[in-house]
From TrEMBL:
Keywords of the record: ATP-binding, Nucleotide-binding, Transport
Domain ABC transporter: 5-229
Name assigned to this protein: ABC transporter domain-containing protein
UniProt superkingdom: Bacteria
Organism, as annotated: Oenococcus oeni AWRIB429
Gene Ontology molecular function: ATP binding; ATP hydrolysis activity
Similarity remark: Belongs to the ABC transporter superfamily.
InterPro entries, sorted: AAA+_ATPase (IPR003593), ABC_transporter-like_ATP-bd (IPR003439), ABC_transporter-like_CS (IPR017871), ABC_transporter_ATP-binding (IPR050763), DrrA1/2-like_C (IPR025302), P-loop_NTPase (IPR027417)
Length: 295
């Protein structure tokens, strides 16, 4: 798979303090990448460097083989946490104004992006009158005007209801599939990161983990099987030390796989009155690595 973004030994120093310290990022074309970290970890600084907003103190960034900031900007789109569109202008007026900033961009591109984000019904409304979800869809449309090869999304669904979040992700997933769009995502909703092809976790300016969500969950979390029933019998038979504990009348067992849980449930079927099985999540990964919940 072709590489669309490559950053090597990326570093940013403020007042002799390294906000980002020699990190490497490699992104394949058409992939969804989640970039996670607690507040103050260096996440925003990294994004600003990757999108040419901030000049690195060291390291190298290539986007589609190009290194100059001008060439990189032609290949990227950015959806910021805060909108940069005019509240008084209509959706269409905002997009037409933004389209004029690009050379040789056909007028029909505005119609295309409005259709992509399903904004036809409110395209003639003032941007400031829209709901949060509608505004976010228009923000994405604005970022798609120049047909970017990489779309950077900074907390794209924060504060939105689940239906709107699903609509936005349905749109993005279709573009990823149909147009080979690469998506670079920061999010506080770790279930969104669970869908990523690649996950990077940063803390204190250092990359502390990298892999698929499955790889990270396998390495940094345990599956948990909770059993209620003849706990004394099961506990005496198992004797697993730290993998076995009691809490509020329930027996809690850490398992390495769902197959191990199934084997245990089959073995002690007669002694079990009730059970619950929970696989490790990206939230568990994040807490295991950083010691805190993402905010």
């Amino acid at each position: 798979m072709a590489t669309i973004l490559n950053a090597t030994r990326l570093t940013k120093i403020y007042d002799k303090k390294k906000a980002v310290d020699n990190i490497d990022i490699n992104v394949n074309a058409g992939s969804l990448v989640a970039f996670l970290g607690p507040n103050g970890a260096g996440k925003s600084t990294t994004i600003k460097m990757l999108t040419t907003i901030l000049r690195p103190s060291g390291g190298k960034i290539l986007v589609d083989g190009e290194e100059s900031p001008e060439a990189i900007r032609k290949n990227i789109g950015i959806v910021f946490q805060e909108s940069i569109l005019d509240k008084e202008l209509t959706v269409r007026e905002n997009l037409l104004f933004r389209s004029n900033l690009y050379q040789r961009l056909p007028k029909k591109r505005v119609d295309e992006v409005i259709e992509i984000v399903q904004a036809e019904e409110f395209q003639n409304q003032a941007y400031g009158s829209l709901s949060g979800g509608q505004k976010r869809r228009v923000d994405i449309a604005r970022a798609l005007l120049n047909r970017p090869k990489i779309l950077f999304l900074d907390e794209p669904t924060t504060g939105l209801d689940i239906q709107t979040r699903n609509l936005i992700w349905g749109t993005l997933s279709a573009m990823q599939k149909n147009e080979n769009l690469t998506i670079f995502l920061t999010t506080h909703y770790l279930e969104e990161a669970d869908q990523a092809d690649d996950v990077y976790i940063i803390d204190h300016g250092h990359l502390i983990a990298h892999g698929t969500s499955s790889q990270l969950k396998q390495k940094y979390t345990k599956n948990v099987l909770t059993i209620e029933g003849d706990n004394d019998f099961i506990e005496k038979d198992l004797s697993w030390g730290n993998k076995l504990r009691e809490s509020q009348g329930s027996l809690i067992i850490d398992t390495d796989s769902s197959q191990e849980a199934i084997s245990l449930l089959s073995k002690y079927a007669k002694q079990i009155d009730h059970f619950e099985f929970r696989q490790g999540t990206m939230d568990d990964v994040f807490i295991s690595l950083t010691g805190k919940e993402i905010r």
